[in-house]
Amino acid sequence: MTRSVLLRIFFVACIAVYPFIIYFGIQYLPPSFFGLVLLGLLGMRYGILLPEEKPILLPILLVFVAYALAATLLKSTTMLLYYPALVNFSLGTVFVFSLRQGDPILLRFIRARGWPISEHGPRYLYRLTGVWSVFFVLNGLTSIWTAMLSIAIWTVYNGFIAYFLIAILMGGEYIFRRFYKARKGIDDPANHSG
Fold first, then answer.
1. Do 193 and 103 share a domain, yes or no?
2. What ranges make up the beta strands (E) of 1-51?
3. Under 8 Å between Cβ of 28 and 54
4. How far apart are CA 19 and CA 47, in angstroms?
5. Do 81 and 151 contact (CB within 8 A), yes or no?
6. Domain span at residue 5?
7. Average pLDDT rounded to a whole number, residues 167-172
8. What is the structure's pLDDT at 118?
9. What is the pTM of this model?
10. CB of 66 within 8 A of CB of 57?
């Protein structure tokens, strides 16, 4: 594996355990410490952006950096708890605006990577982008709601349940895509879209 791939895996792992880091660490360390850790992780993420990702991900990353900086300067535990909601709302916003522009973000990702797209792909990816848009908004709202209940509930939801729901959505889409391709007569297993 290349250094970039290892850094990506490390970044994803750190973000995945972020709720648990906050839950166990906030008792012992000030919120500004975790804001600085988040800034460091976001800096690392910037360093491993692929050229084709920059136009799409850089604006979102800048929003996250500004938010983490504000959480650090304000020493705000509440802002740290709302970070997963910010991530979901930011992604939801990007997905929705891509739909309004008629060029779904998922289609852009596939094209940027040079993967083949069937004639049915753009329509399928338009709908899939809509499904993910709704998911991100609902997940963000749920994240805010759990933050208002307790840090323990917030941790369980954002550190486990939200990822489980993402896995269910991805797995369900994968199964649906197989049926969709069979129905449309798309036989190429290397084809990444419907």
1. yes
2. none
3. no
4. 23
5. yes
6. 1-81
7. 97
8. 85
9. 0.87
10. no
Look at residues 139, 134, 167, 137 and name the one whose alpha carbon lies nearest to residue 154.
139
Same domain as 101, residue 27: no
Are 169 and 95 within 8 A, CB to CB? no
**56, 81, 106: which is the final residue of a domain?**
81
Torsion of CA 35, 38, 44, 47, to 10 degrees: -80
Written as six digits, the tokens of 182 are: 């069979």
Residues 192, 99 share a domain: yes
Q: What is the pLDDT of residues 127-149, one digit of tens each?
A: 999 999 999 999 999 999 999 99
The sign of the dihedral angle between the CA atoms of 134, 89, 124, 97 is positive
Residue 35 belongs to what H/E stretch? helix 31-47
Number of domains the chain is built from: 2
DSSP state of 29: S
Q: Are residues 116 and 186 in the same domain?
A: yes
Tell me the one-letter amino acid at 149: L
CA distance 9 to 11: 5
